[in-house]
Amino acid sequence: MEIAEWGVSMKQQSKNPKDLDLDAARVSHDSGYLTTNQGVGISNTDDALKAGKRGPTLMEDFIFREKVTHFDHERIPERIVHARGSGAHGYFQVYKNLTHLTKAHFLSDPKLVTPVFVRFSTVAGFRGSADTVRDVRGFAVKFYTQEGNYDIVGNNMPVFFIQDAIKFPDLIHALKPEPNNEMPQAASAHDTFWDFVVNTPETMHNVMWLMSPRAVPKSYRMMEGFGINTFRLVNAKGEFKFVKFHWKPILGVHSLVWDEAQKAAGKDPDFNRRDLWENIENGNPAEFELGIQVLAPEDEFKFDFDILDCTKLWPEELIPVQKIGKMTLNQNPDNFFAETEQVAFCPANVVPGIDFTNDPMLQGRLFSYLDTQISRLGGPNFQQLPINRPLPKVNNNQRDGMHRMTIDKGQTSYYPNSLNMGEPHAARAGESHFEHYQEKVDGHIVRERSESFRDHYTQPALFWNSMSDWERKHIIDAFRFELGKCKNKNTHQKLVDMLGNVDPELAQKVAEGLGATPPANTANPTTVSSAALSMANTANSPKTRKVAILIGNGFDKAQFDAITSALTAAGACFDVVSCKLGPATAQDNSTVECTQTYTTTAAVFYDAVYIPGGSHIESLKGSADVQSFLGDTFNHYKTIGLSGEATAMLTLLRPGQNAEPGVICDLTGNMKSYTAAFLEGLTQGRHFQRKL
């Protein structure tokens, strides 16, 4: 389908991404008889061909050989980084015409629906690692635009560890399991990583983010995304602006606490993957607004940081984020391998109107991503895999190569030619094509770094200054945990000395936990803060939050009905948890189906717990499972609801004490006011003012 024709049909289609399929590659296997890969029918795929029922298997059994050969070769090399991933389909729409900034067509018309595929991931771990480890998270978006595929390949943190891509192999070698013993898996708490950090001061800013709650997101649906590098937007007049890309989650930015993250890793390694999948299946799409920070070229050098340094962010107070569109992820993949595993992202995948800058990390990424896909996906034709195919017709003279999937007709495979009337021809005026911005470059060829890249501590201090009390506590505890796992005491001291360049209090408290010596004569390099950097200022909503309702025989059905009705109306969801599956009998002899037990679920999977009143409280008070459930909920700062006789459960939380913040109690029986209070606590999420 030609570009113009496709653009018209897109406006007529629905916003279901599976109505916007890239091709006819999806195949249903709901009916019909078994065949070989050559289409030959098979009557038995359970028994190999033998010489007699107990005799040897015959090599002539082509059905057996094909089946096992395919199995032996069905794994491909996993990604070196971002191996552990989860994907979803969706669509994007811009809010208004942005042709004054860029000639990118998908940003020109609010009526245009652009299909997308997004892959979220961890960075350090192998494919089989857990979701909730402390790590940077990948946030990669592929736009299937009318002018070709465009990728924003980013992370959930706006800055990177290093400034120049030539150091990337060193960073990842240090971060990965140590080569002598292949440990630890999916963790940065070990000697080689921190040895690299203390010898590479430019890592300090990203390390501050890595020690923050951002490194343990509660959900892929509740984390920000950042393009990290600086790009250009170019309009039809050839004018450009510098730009950084942001993804802002509609549900706000929320995280796990560290004890919760560790327990979730053991109880469900697929914690984040399952959350994304189940919410999309249940009709709760993941929604993000696309924001841009735009900077005029004449303002390139007006700040105390270099805008091309990817270890620096652009403070939103200086350069506001403009929200320009919305992305909705509302369809799960049909096949994890074919889509999520085989999707290939690359920052070099741009469309007319979006261009690169001299950011040295970006320049290296433009080569590295393409190079690794050739190795991982078996050759230069990986773009022909269905998930990677662009929507417009691919029209060039490239031929052959491993895994070639197109059958290219014609005599000529070169340009210029006369035998094919000069076709395909170079794009002419009026035909969509990419043009690099013509920047004048003049300088000596050197292996050096700009002086403007050498401040490694002002922005980490900005980040620290912007944190709330509970975020600061998380960062301090994270440094103590991570460095506490390192055997090299010299690394402890070097790290504390580095932190002295960020903030004296931070260095002092980390030193206390490590038994190191606090650095002398420290000073915070800046007193500036940014409200945009603190998760304390994020949006909160009860929508899709999950509540565990604990019951036993003899619970109060009226209170149960009141809370479940309120949760459903607010867009929240719930599980009924008891000591066994099946019906539980209420005081009025009605029943409710229990969907989880204390052995099949745990408090870490819920945002709140509610216990209705009734005679069941006596049995619940004596249950070690209930005590553990309530204890984890309380210690993870989540909302606890107790109504009627259930208020007696307070003694399990803090004997002799009144209710703590976020513990919603009621003895009056006024369920209307009680449910409102419980929903308010659920909406707030964590209650960090609670003193543990």
Automatic annotation (TrEMBL):
Residues 35-423 form the Catalase core domain. The gene is katE. Its cofactor is heme. The keyword NADP does not apply. This is Catalase. Keywords: Heme, Hydrogen peroxide, Iron, Metal-binding, Oxidoreductase, Peroxidase. The keyword Lyase does not apply. GO terms for molecular function: catalase activity. Decomposes hydrogen peroxide into water and oxygen; serves to protect cells from the toxic effects of hydrogen peroxide. SUPFAM superfamilies: Class I glutamine amidotransferase-like, Heme-dependent catalase-like.
